[in-house]
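Q: Entry one of two.
A:
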Amino acid sequence: MKCKGIPSIICSSIMIILLNVCSGSLIASENDIDNKVDEVLSRMTLEEKVGQMTQISLEFISKGYPNTEVPLTLDPERMRKVIVDHHVGSILNVGTHAHTAERWQEIITELQNMAVTQSRLGIPIIYGIDAVHGANYTKDATLFPQSIAMAATWNKDLSRQEGEITAYEVRASGIPWNFNPVLGMGRQPLWPRLWETYGEDPYLASVMGYEYIKGLEGENNTISQNNKVAACMKHYLGYSFPLTGQDRTPAWIPERMLREYFIPPFQAAVDAGISTVMVNSSEINGVPVHSSPFYLKELLFDEMGFEGFVVSDWLDIHNLYQREKVAVDYRDAIKQAVMAGIDMSMVPLDLDFSTILIDLVKKGEVPISRIDEAVRRILKVKFRIGLFDNPYPDPSLLSKVGCEKFSQVNRQAAREAITLLENRDSLLPLNKNARILVTGPTADKLSVLNGGWTITWQGDQEKLYPQGKNTIFEALVHTFGKQNVDYIEYSGDNTTQIVNEAKDKNAVILCLGEQPYCETPGNIKDLSLEQDQIKLAKALYKTNVPVILILVEGRPRIIQEIESSARAILLAYLPGMEGGNAIAEVIAGDFNPCGKLPLTYPRYPNDLTLYDHKVSEDINEFCNYNPQWPFGYGLSYTTFEFSNLSLDKNIMHKGEELKISVTVKNTGKRRGMQVVQLYIGDRVASVTPSHKRLKKFSKIDLEPGESRQVTFLIQEKDLGFIGRDNKPIIEPGDFNVFIGDLQTSFTYK
C-alpha cells in the first residue's frame, strides 16, 4: 500500500487499522498503543515535543484576530505559524459563538489537514471544548439542564444519557475532547460556578459524575468510537470552595477536610477511567495548584492512580507570576508548572510558552525526561481517541444532532430536575382553564433557562438563541392556551401596571432569579435576591391573587422575605432548552414534580450550615441547622409513606456487608417518583462525626396505592472517614440509619 502525499506516521496507522479490520479487531491494545507512542516519540525533535504540550485558542488562528471576524474564518498564515512552525498539538474554544455542526466539521477538517499533511510528522490536533450541558457551542444541539439541575434529578441513568448524547453531538461536530465534568463540591453557595457542580454532597456528586463520564467515554472507555469523546475532570482540586465565595480566590481547606469531601468525586472519575484532568485556577492554603508537585504528582498519579494527561486552565501558568506571585516571571512560572506536573498549557493566545520551555530544556533547567513524560501522556490519549487512525469528522453523524429522540431525554431531565419547594393548600397543579398573568425578569428569555456556556461564554446573547424553543411564558401559552395567559414584561419600574393587571387573574406566575453569567463576571457579594424582585413579589401579594414563584437561578438566592406569602414555589435551577416546557408541564400537572435539592437552600445570607453538619452546629436555639429548605428536600403532587425499615443484622462484623430495606408506598392519588435516600450517622468517632451523611439513594416510580421494597447494600467503606492522621479509617461502634422519617441503628465490630 502506498500513501502518496500523506506523512509516514499516518500512513502506518492507516495500514494498521486495515490489518485490524481484517483480523476483526478495531481497538488496539494498551500495549500496542504504548509501542506506537514510543515509536512516534523517538522521532520527535524537542521543538515538536514542546509543541504537543501547547494549546492555543481558536480565535488566535482566525482572521481579524484579536477582533475575530464573524462568521469565523480561519487564517491560513496564522494556522501555519501555529501548527507547522510551532508544532502546536491542541486547539480549543469556539472563537466567536456557536457554529453549526457542519461548520464545525469544516473547521476541524481544515485544522487536521494542516496538521497531518503539512507538518513533518503529521501528528493530529486534539481539539477541546467546554460542552458542559450538552454541545453548547454547536447550534441546534441538545442543551441539557446545567449540572446542579441534573443533580436535582437524583437520576443516574439520566446523567449517563446526558453524557452519551453530549458525546455524540460533540463528536458529530468533529471534536473528540470535552472539558467536563466539573467535580468540585458545591459547598460555597456564593461561588458563581456553583451551577456547574453536582451540589454539596460528595456521594451524590461521585455517582452523577461517574455515570456522566461513562456516558461520554463508554462503559469500557472506548473513546476511539465515533460517538464517544475523552472526558476531562475539573477543576482539580478545591477550586469550588473559595473562602470569600469569589471566583478564582484562595481556598483554605485542611488536608483531612480535602480528603473527606473534595477528593471523592475526583477519585470516582479516576475509577471511571477518565482520560484527562484540568487544574484548579487558584490555590489551596497558599499553594497554587498549578505549581504543586504534591497535588499534581503525589496525590493525583501516585495515590489516586490517574493515568491520563494534565491540562492547565486558561492563562493559569501566566497567573503564577501575574496574579499568584509565586513566580518572578513567565519563565519561572513555566518551569514551576511543568516540573509540578502540567503536561499541556492552555496558553492560550500567544506562542511564548513553547519558545521559553524549549530554552529551559536546552539550558538544563527542565529535564528532557519530564518533557517526554508529558508528551507520552498526550500522545497516548490521541491514539486512544483514534486520531492517528482517522483525525477527521464523520459526516454521517450530522443527521441526528438535535434530533427529537435526544430532545425527549432532555425534556425528561428538565422535568425531573424541577423541585417543588412549597405548595400551600395544594394550589398546584393549576386548572388548565385558569386565567394567568406571567411576569418577572426570567419569564420570557431562553438565556436565563440555560445560563453561561451557552452559544457564547456568558450565555447572555438572547438574540442568538433558537426561535423554535419555548421560554416559560411561551410554554405556558402552549399549555394553558393563548386566551388564558397574559404577559407583562418586567422593566423594573412598571410594578403598578403589573399589579393592576393581576387583580382579575386566578393566579400570577412570577418568574424570578438570575440573569446569565459565567465564572468571575458572576461574582456577587450577597446571596439575597435583588431588592427590585423582592419588592415586585410583595406588591403582587397585596392583590390577594395566589402567586406562584418560579426560581430560575444557578445558586440559592435568599428569598426569606417573600417565601411565606407565596402560595407555591418551584425551583427550576438552570433547566436548559426544554426548561420552559418542563415548567409548564409541572404547573399544569402534566408531570408530577420529583426533584430533590442537591444543596442546602439557606434562609439567611450568612447562615451557610450544610446538611452534613456536626453536632455543635445544631445544638440549641442559638446554633442550629435551620435552612429555608434542607438538602434532599422536594415535594410532590402525591404523598409517600415509608415503613418497615429493617436490617438483616444488628451487628455488622469486619468484612461483612449490611442489607438495609424499607417499604415505600404511594399513598396519594397520582403516579409519582420518589427518591429514597439512605443516610448513616456515626454516633461516636475519633474525628467529630457529622449528624448524618448520604450513603445510598434510589429513584423509584409508583402508581397510586403501589408499594415497593427498596434494598440497599452497605459495605465497610461506607462507614469509614478520614482520621486524625489524614488516612482512611473505619472504627467500631454504633451507627444510626435514616430513611425518610424512619430511624434505626446497628453496631459495627
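Q: Entry two of two.
A:
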Amino acid sequence: MLRRIVLLGLMISSLCLAPSAQAQGPEVQHSDPQWRVSYWNNMTLSGEPVLEETVDHLGGDWGYGSPHPNVDADHFSARWSRFVYLEQDTYFFTITSDDGIRLYIDNRLRMDDWNDHSRRTLTSKVDLGAGHHQIVVEYYENAGIAAAGLYWEPTGGSDTHWQGLYYDNPWLNGPPRVQRADIYLDFDWGYGSPATMIPNDGFSARWGRLVHFDGGRYRFTATSDDGVRVYVDQRLIIDEWHDHPPRTYVKEVDLLPGDHRLMVEYYENGGVAVASLSWAPVPRSSMWQGEYYNNAWLGGSPGFERADAAIDFDWGYGSPEARIPSDGFSARWTRTVPFESGMYRFMTSTDDGVRLWVADHLLIDSWKDQVATLHSDPIYLEGETPIKMQYYENTGVAAARLTWTRVGDEPSPAGVIVVDDSDPCFVRGGLSTAWRAADGGYQGTLTWTRNNNRPRFNYNWARWYPDLQPGRYEVLVYIPEYHATTGNALYWVAHSDGYTLRRVNQAANGGRWVSLGSYRFRGTEEDYLSLADVTYEPYLSRDIAFDATKWVPR
C-alpha cells in the first residue's frame, strides 16, 4: 500500500512538473507562410481595420485603385507583418512606394520614407544573424497612384555577380519565379524569355549588385526593349518605364571612390526582349577645362584651374573655391564635343554675364550684370566642335549653367502626331496676362504660368487637339528643363471611353517625354489632352509648363 502511494505521488509530481520543464526550453518560432495584412480607411493606421487578411506577397501596383473593394482608393493605410527565416548574411532590403512607407526588422526601424511622393525606390544594407526575423512594413496612400513593394537579397559576400530576380508579370509583383546569379547584365532573348517558367511576353526582372568604382565620372549605358530603370546608390539615373523598340539611354554620374550599389528594373511587354547595362569612366578629354580668375575681366593668369564634368553651378553668395573671391570673379570653360549632323539649341543661364562660342561662332553674347537669365540660340553642327564659354560674377548670387538639345530630335515614326505649344491645335484660356513664353522646350519654345490653388476662380487652362484616326494611341507629354517646377501637374485625357486623370511631377522629369498611358480614341474633335494651372500647391509657388504632346499608335 505504501509503495502504491509513493508511485502515485511520483506520477502526480511528474505530471505537475511537465509543463514547467517544457516552459524552460527554447520557444519555437516558425516562418509564416503568408503575410498578415491590415487595412485602414485613413492614413494613420488608427482605429479598427476595415479589412484583415493573409496574402502571398506584399503590396502591389494598384494605379488609381486600392488593394480591395473595402479599401478606399485614396487616403488609406496598411500594415504587413511576417516572420521569415534568414541565413546569416548582409542583405539589401529594397522598398518601393507611392506614397509613404516604413520598414521594421525585429522591431527596429530600418527605412523611413513616410511622406507624400511619386513612385520611388530606396535600398538599405542590413547585417542579420541566422534565425527567424520579424519583418513589418507600414504604408499609406494619400492621392493619385498607389503602389507599395518590398524585396530583399543576400549579398553573399561577393560583388562579382548580379543577383537576378525574374517575375511572371510586367509589374515586379509577388515572389520571383526565378532567382539566379547572372555574371553579365547583357541579354537578348529575342522572342523568348529568360527561363522556362517565365512567359515570353509580359514579364519583368530586377538585378542588384555592389560594384567598386575608382573616383571620377562614369558613363552608364542601358539598352532595353521595353521599359528600364537604373539606380545608383538609390538615385534614379535612367527612367524609361514605357513600351518602346530597342533603344539605348546614356547618363553620366560622378562617383566617389568606393563601393556603390547598382540596381536595374526591367519589363517586357511584347515582341523582342532586350536588357543590358554597362559603364565606363569618362575620359578627361570629355571634361571641361575650367580656368578661374580673381577679377571680373579674365585678366592675367588664372587663380586656379581644374577639370569640370559639367557647367552646372549655383554658388549662391559663395565662390568656386577658397582662392577665388565671392564677388568680382570670372571663369572660362573650353571643350571639344563630337556632334552628329543636325540643328542644336544651346541654352545658358547665368548670374551675371556670359559669352558662348560654338564652332568659333559667338552664339550668345550677354556680357552684363543680370539676375539668373536664360538665353538660347540654335546652330547647325557636324563632327568635332570646339565650345568656349566665358562668365563673370559682379555681386550677389553667382550661377552659371550650359546645356544643349538637338532640335526636333529624331524623325517621328509613321502615324505619330505631335502637337506643340506653338501649333494652332494648342488652345489656351484664362487670364491672358498670366501666360508667359520662354526659350527652351521641345521645339525651342515653351509656354508657362504660375500655379493656382483655387480651382473655382480665375484659373488658366490649355488643350492640345490632335488630328487622329480612330484607334488606340499612347499619349506622351514633353516636360522642358525650365519653368517646370510643379510636382502635381494634373493632365486630363479625353478619349472614347471617357476621361482619365494623370498626375505628373514636372520637377522630376525635365528634358524628357513622360507617358500618360494608352487609350482608344474616336478620331474626332472630342479627342484632346487638357492641363490647368491648378496644382493644389501653395499659391504662386510653382511654375507649370505647357509644351509638346505626342500621340503614338499602339
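A: Comment on entry two: Confidence is low (pLDDT under 50) at residues 1-28, 409-413. The domain at 158-282 is CATH 2.60.120.260 (Jelly Rolls).
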